[in-house]
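Example complex used in Figure S2.
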Amino acid sequence: MTARAAEQRWLAWQTIDTGRLVLLSVTSTLVVVAVARTTVVPFYGTRFVAIAFGLYIAFGELLRLVLPGGREAAPIAMSAALSYAMVLRVAGQHWPQVSSRPVVVNRHVVNVVMNGPPLQVVLVAAAGMLLGSLPHIAAGRRAGLTGMSARLVAVACVAFIFHPLSSHLLAMPKVAFVVMAILAMLGWLIETVISAVIRADDLRARYSVTLADELRVQWRLGLAVGVAAIITVFGAEVMGIAELAVFAGPLLVIQFAFRRYAGIRATYLQTVRALAQVTEVGGYVESGHSRRVSRLALAIGRELGMPEPDLLNLEYAALMHDIGQLSLVEPIPGGATLLVSPAEARRIAEYGAEVIRQTGVLDAVAELVRWQWLPASGGLRTPPLGSKVIRAANAFDDLAGGSVDRDRTAAAVDRLRFAANTEYDPLVVAALAAVTDRLPITRL
Amino acid sequence: MGRLSLATWLYIAVVVSAAAAVLASIPAGPEPNGFWVVCAALALLFLVCDSTPIVLGPRQWAWSPSSAATLAAVVLLGNRGAVGAAIVGAVAVFSVRRVRLIERLFNGAMYALAGYAAGMTFHTQGGQPFIQGLGNVDHVLFAKHLTSYATFHASLKPFAAAAVVHVLVNHGLLWGMLLLDRHSRATARQAPGWGVPLLLASDLGFAALGLVIAALWPVLGPLAAAIVLVPLYVARWAMGQFAEQQRAHTATLRALCQAVETKDFYTRGHSERVSRGSGMIARQIGMRSDRAEAIRFAGMLHDVGKLGVPTKVLQKEGRLTEEEFAAIQLHPMRGLEIVREIGFLNEALTGIMHHHERMDGRGYPMGFAGHEIPEFARIIAVADAFDSMTSTRAYRKATRIPEAIAELRRGAGTQFDPKFVDAFIAALDQEGWGLQEPAQPRGHEILTSQDHDDPIAPLRVVETI
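Predicted assembly (909 residues):
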C-alpha cells in the first residue's frame, strides 16, 4: 500500500462518525449473537419459509432506491423483514418438523409454522440483506452498511416485542392486526430516528431539524412499507409463501413510482445547476461562482437550522442568483455584484427574479433572488432569511474568489463582520464564519 | 371525445345493451346472506379506485386498480361471482371523474361485461368461492384459514384465466372505441414510451391484487379492501409528485432558455419554435416517445452556447473576420459545455453539438458528412434553418412559408438530410406552423445584423489569401 493510499484509507476512517460507529457495533453484535445461537439451538420452522423470506429480503435490498436528498431506502426489503418478524402462520407447509404443530384438515396433515424466535429473524434478515447488497458491491456502488444496519436494528426491536405476544394473537386476527400496525409504525420510527442521527452527523446539521426532515420525507413510504408487511403476514396465512408473489406487482408499482419521482428531482437539480452556468460561459461572472455560492449558502442554511424544503429553494436561488446579469449589455468586471451601485444591483436582482418567476413554479425561489440586493437593515422591509444568506455568501465569494488560502478567507469574513448589522445579518455572518472556519470552501 | 360518428354511436349502443341484457338476466331469486355486503364494499372500492387513477403521462394515460375490485368479487362470490362482478363494474357509471354521460354509460357497460365474463370463466374453470356460507364467516377457528388455503390453491388457475379474460374483454372493447373514434385515437398516440405491453401487464398485476383482497377477506373482512388501497395511494402520491416535478422542470428549462434569448431581440422564441419543429419531425417519423421528448429538449437548448459568443460579434455589420467567425463556430461546443452535466439529455447532447453540420461535410464544428452526423442533429438542423428563415431579421423581412420550404428542398442533400426535410414538410402540411406576428423592436434591444442559422443569407467572412 502506498503512503497516499494509506492516508486516504485513514481519512475515510476518520469520516466515520460516532453515531455510525455505535450503530455498526450494535448491529455486528446482534448478528454475531444470532449466528452463535443457531449453532446451539436447532432451526425453528421449515427451512423453506426462512429461505423464502431471506430471498424476498435480498430481492428488496437489490431494488434499493435513492429518495430525494440522497437518502437510500429499501422499502421492499424493509417490508419483507418486518413481515418475517411478525408472521404468525404460514399455510401450506407440508414438511414434518420437530417444532411445528401438525394439524389435520380435510384429511391432509398440515404443519403450521409459527412465529420464529427473534434472533432467528435477525439472522435471516441479515443474511438476506447481505446477499442483496452483493450485486451492488459488484457493480461498484456503495454497500450501504449504515442503511442496512438501521433496518436490521428496527426489525430486531419489532421481533423481540412481537414474539412473546405471538401465541396470544393467533386466535384474534383483529387484535393481531392492530398490534402489527403499532409495531410496524414503531419499526419505522426506529429506522427513521437512526437515519436522522446519522444524517445530522454527516451534514453537520441540527438533530431536531434532520429528524423533522426525515419524518416528512419518509412517512408516506413508511406507511406503504408497514401496510405491505401486514398484508404479507395475513396473506402468508391464507396463500402460503410461493403464492405471495402475486403481491409483488403492487410493490413494484410503488417502487417504480418513487424511482421516477426521485429521478426527476435529481434531474431538475442537475438542469438548474448546469443552466446556472450560462452566466459564466457568457463571461458575466467568474467561473465556478454560482456553484461555490450555492454550496456556501447551503452550508450556512444548515448551520442556521433551515428545514429541507427551504434549503432546496435556497440552493436553487443561490445557483441562479446572478441570472439577472444576462440583461446587461456589458458584463460587470469580474461579475462582482459587490462592485455595482445599489440601484444597479437592485435592477439585476429584480430582472433575475422576473426570469425565475416566468417558470410559474419557482415563486419562492424568485422571491429569494429578488431581495438579495437589500441590506439586512434595509429599512424598506426585512429581506427573507434565504436572501440574507445569499447576499452574505455572494459577498464572501466576491471577496475570497474561491481561494482556499486561510488568511484570505479570514480577511473576507472580517470584512463581512465589519458590515454586520447594516449590510449583512449578524447571525448569518456568524454562521458563515463557523462554516468557513470548519472546512475550506472546496470541501463544503 | 368530441363529436361522435354514427358508427361510434352504434358501437356504444351495442355494448350498453349487451351489458343491460346481462344485468337483466339475473334471476330474481334471493341472494345468499352477505352477498350485498361484499358487493357494496367492493363497489365502493371500485368507485374510489376509478375516481383516483394514478396518472402516468399526458392526457388520459392512467393506471386505475379498479379491476382489483371486480376480480375480488369474482373470487369471493363463487357461482354468484359473475353477477356480483357485473354489478360492481357497472358502478363505473357513477364515477366522480368529470366525463360525459355517454362515456359513463360506455365505461359502466364495459366493466360490467368484463366482470361478467371473468366471473363466468372463474366458475366454469372450477374455481371455488373464498367465503363459504356467506354471512356467518367465523374466522376465529384455526382450521378455517387452512380450508381457505386449500380453496385458494384450487382457485389459482381459474383465477388466472378469469384475470386474462377480464383484461382481454376490457381492452378489446376499448380498442373497438379507439378504432372508431378519431379523438380517442389522437389520445392513444400520446401513449407513454413503454406503451401497450406495460399497460396490459400492469392491468394483470392489479387484477392479482383482487386475489390478495379476496384472500385477506376471511380474516379481515371489508378492511381487506381498505388496506390494499394504502400502498396504491402512496404510489399515486409519488406519481403525482413526479408529474408535478416534471412540469416544473420543463417550465424552468423554457424560462432559462428565454432568458438567454433576451440578449438578442430577433431570436426571441426561436428555441421554443425549434423545439416544436424538431418534435413535429420526430412524431412524423414515428420516433419513440422518450426520444421524441429528448429531441424537444435538445431543440430548446441548441443555441444556449450562443451566450458565449461576444455581443460585439453578434451585432457586427458587414463581413466577419476569421476570428469572429471562429467564435461563432464555437457556439455548439459552448452549448455542450453548459448542458453536458444534465444526465437525462444523453443523445440530445449530440444533437446540440452537431446541429450545424452539413450533409456535404462543410459544416461545423467537426465537418461530419452524411450519416456521420447524429440523427438528432440532422433533425434539429432542418427545424433551425426553417425557423430562422420564417422569422424577421434586422436585415430582411420574414420569408413566407412556401419560399422557406423551397429553400429547404434546395438544401436537401447538401445541407439537410432529405428524409427529414420531407418529414418536416409533411408535418407542416398536417399541423401547420402557426403565424407569428412580426417582432417590432422598441428601440433599446440588442439587434443583430446577421444570423448564423440563416441559409438564405449565410455569414459573410473576410476572404483571406
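Residues 3-264 of chain A form one domain. The first strand of chain A starts at residue 65 and ends at 67.
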